[in-house]
Amino acid sequence: MTNENNTVIYIGVTSNLNKRVFQHKTKSYKGFTSKYNCTKLVYFEEFLEVNEAIAREKHLKNGNRSRKESLINKNNPDWQDLSEGWLFNGI
C-alpha cells in the first residue's frame, strides 16, 4: 500500500485482501496506514500457506526502499491502484 504521492510504502499480510484494503481505505484502524494515508494498493502477492506469506513479508520489510520500488515498478510501472473498481459491499 502507498499514499497518493507514492512517498510511503506499507507491507503487510492478510488472509482477506479485499477486506484489508477496504479497512485501509476507510482508515478503520488507527496506525501506520491511516497516519500516512496509505490507501492505494500498488502490489500484492498470493500464497497458499500463511507461513510462506509471513516469511515473504519479513523479507520485503528487511529490504531497502529501492528494492521495494523495483518490485512495484516491474509489475505496476504507473503505480496504479490495483484495487480500483473492486466492490467492497458487505464487508
Automatic annotation (TrEMBL):
Entry coiled-coil feature ranges: none
Pfam families to which the protein is assigned, alphabetical: GIY-YIG
Superkingdom assignment: Bacteria
Listed InterPro entries: GIY-YIG_endonuc, GIY-YIG_endonuc_sf, UPF0213_domain
Keyword Hydrolase in record: yes
Annotated keywords: Endonuclease, Hydrolase, Nuclease
PROSITE patterns: GIY_YIG (PS50164)
Domain GIY-YIG: 1-70
GO molecular function: endonuclease activity
UniProt xrefs under PANTHER family: BSL5627 PROTEIN, UPF0213 PROTEIN YHBQ
Similarity comment: Belongs to the UPF0213 family.
Name listed for the protein in its UniProt record: Endonuclease
Source species of the chain: Zhouia amylolytica AD3
Highest classification ranks of the organism: Bacteria, Pseudomonadati, Bacteroidota, Flavobacteriia, Flavobacteriales
